[in-house]
Design goal:
It is built from ten helices and twelve strands. The chain is α/β, with parallel strands linked by helices and 365 residues long. The longest helix is centred in the last third of the chain and has 38 residues, at 268-305. The structure holds ligand 0PR. Ligand 0PR binds at residues 31-33, 88-90, 93, 118, 120, 162, 166, 191, 193-194, 221, 233.
């Protein structure tokens, strides 16, 4: 560390240079994050100095967290769902498995997840000493529910499906998983970290939420399609008592116990997530989601014209293509199977899609 501090101007000049090295968002085509909505930035700033880890000191912020959980519970068809604001899908998925393990304390627990599960499940299973069993996917990159059922045994503590997969944008057959979970009495966690803020705004979405009686918990991330600031995730549980299973005593806080994984938690992104939902309303969210879906279709059509058909028709705004070469300057990632993977987030506007397609056109001419 420096012996003597340096001036604000010097620091800001240095920070500005470093920030300039970051990729401009209009070149980022594979992120599930996006430029926060202006309403999110304003709300975040107001709550920048709050800590939800000690909610008795910030009762106003804590009330907003409850409102956010309330709104998302209603969106997931369960008014009054239990829940809290997490740091994102990873924390939510870990919490789901912690609860499932508490609810079924077997010696050698396993969890059945699809091959397409996000790598946060690897982290969760490793941390919790749970064997991760991966069910294969069908021809459209969705979990094969019958194969999943065959992997379930008496040591299975949880079954999980994804609503909006990270790599192919597919929704697993959650209705069927719900039936299996009910029949066998297993905890069913739906990872809707991405799709949770997309599917409710589509015209005829596949069922994935608490409207299915077997669904026990859901991850949904406002810092993805909810256009909040980072970190804003949300974990929702069918019953508050599921979360209470995770309570540990917190002797020197304003509350006597907590079930969150993180201790100190930022209020800013939570206020931001709430503010965006309030500002846009269902109509505003629908318009943004429709725009992203229209851009996804345009991308798929444009690639098809270039002789590169999408590997599947996605349920949400993620499209994957079998394609080796990409033009310079774009930040694009690949799936585990090597397909090019693009996420049409709100910052990926129609003109960004058109520039990408024309650069692809030149490359493949
Ligand atoms: N579940 C699903 C279905 C996800 O897609 C993700 C993240 C998670 C859980 C984990 O969420 P957190 O990262 O919030 O804990 N999916 C993307 C990924 O890791 C997120 C991402 C964001 C990737 C920005 C790239 C990027 O630039 O691949």
């Amino acid at each position: 560390m420096r012996e003597k501090g340096c001036s604000r101007e010097e620091i800001m000049a240095y920070l500005g240079r470093r920030r300039g090295e970051d990729c401009p968002s209009c070149t980022i085509l594979s992120s599930m994050c996006t430029d926060p909505h202006p309403m999110a930035l304003e709300a975040d700033t107001l709550f920048r100095c709050t800590n939800l880890g000690d909610p008795g000191l910030f009762p106003g912020t804590a009330a907003i967290e409850r409102h956010l959980v309330g709104r998302l519970g209603v969106l997931m068809h369960l008014p009054g769902a239990g829940g809290y604001a997490t740091s994102g899908g990873t924390e939510s998925n870990i919490q789901a498995l912690r609860i499932a393990r508490k609810m079924k304390p077997v010696k050698r627990p396993n969890a059945v997840v699809p091959e397409s599960a996000h790598f946060s499940f690897d982290k969760a299973c490793e941390m919790l000493g749970v064997e991760m069993r991966m069910a294969p996917l069908d021809g459209r990159f969705r979990m094969d529910a019958e194969a999943a059922e065959a992997l379930v045994d008496r040591n299975t503590i949880a079954l999980s499906g994804v609503a909006g997969t990270t790599e192919y944008g597919m929704v697993d057959p959650i209705s069927r998983l719900s039936e299996i979970a009910e029949e066998k009495g297993i905890f069913l966690h739906v990872d809707a970290a991405f799709g949770g803020m997309v599917l409710p705004f589509l015209e005829d979405p596949p069922p994935f939420d608490f409207s299915l009686p077997g669904v026990s918990s859901i991850s949904v991330d406002p810092h993805k399609m909810g256009m909040s600031t980072i970190p804003a995730g949300c974990f929702l549980a069918r019953e508050q008592r599921m979360l209470d299973l995770l309570n540990i005593p917190t002797p020197y806080l304003t509350v006597k116990q907590e079930y969150t994984l993180a201790g100190t938690r930022p209020g800013g992104p939570v206020a931001a997530a709430f503010a965006v939902l309030e500002y846009l309303g269902r109509e505003g969210m629908q318009a943004i989601v429709e725009g992203c879906m229209a851009n996804t279709r345009r991308l798929i059509d444009g690639m098809e014209v270039l002789g590169i058909p999408a590997v599947t028709i996605p349920d949400v705004n993620v499209a994957a293509f079998p394609c080796d070469r990409v033009p310079e300057g774009w930040r694009i990632s690949r799936t585990r199977q090597g397909h090019l993977r693009l996420v049409c987030m709100p910052h990926v506007s129609r003109s960004v899609i058109e520039s990408f397609l024309s650069a692809m056109g030149e490359l493949y001419a």
